[in-house]
Amino acid sequence: xxxxxxxxxxxxxxxxxxxxxxxxxxxxxxxxxxxxxxxxxxxxxxxxxxxxxxxxxxxxxxxxxxxxxxxxxxxxxxxxxxxxxxxxxxxxxxxxxxxxxxxxxxxxxxxxxxxxxxxxxxxxxxxxxxxxxxxxxxxxxxxxxxxxxxxxxxxxxxxxxxxxxxxxxxxxxxxxxxxxxxxxxxxxxxxxxxxxxxxxxxxxxxxxxxxxxxxxxxxxxxxxxxxxxxxxxxxxx
Length: 237
Description:
Helices cover 54% and strands 0% of the residues. The chain is mainly α and 237 residues long.
């Protein structure tokens, strides 16, 4: 008789494997729901590791699962539970609340909305993108229309300058324009240019290399006039 390893048992448990023969037991809907809950919980933990937050948008999917909708439902169940309903306590037991608390689950959005809470991690993501851009192009001043790695990095950089000017003028009432001391320090570490400067012309050889790279990726060397490639107006060149 083959003995399963602990890893094999864990993998089967993750797939909600039924260990008893079906004729010996009747799988209850409650058992299936519990298995499904723990699967979504593990999915949220993986999401948190990848994106550094536990607030997916309500319509957001992760690994083909409606994770955002599930997160929203956990808040709803918990709110009903606080209403001291015995049925709600059964639907949302204390053990589940404790597990979600372990990963920093946010129970009340307090009118801010998911996007507001996610703002910090989005900023950090764009900051890392700017660091990658600097490593590749040796500067941190992409043009306002520059797209880098599929993200509108140029627009983000312009937004940081606007936030900095708001800070100087004491206009910090908009959450989307807050330039905190920490963010200021991080951008200064990169040599961020707070006053927008016109960059000199890029060397012909540099643009030629970009065109060769573009040709390798897209199998042609005829970008349209408006195409920006790796932060440069290749189409215009």
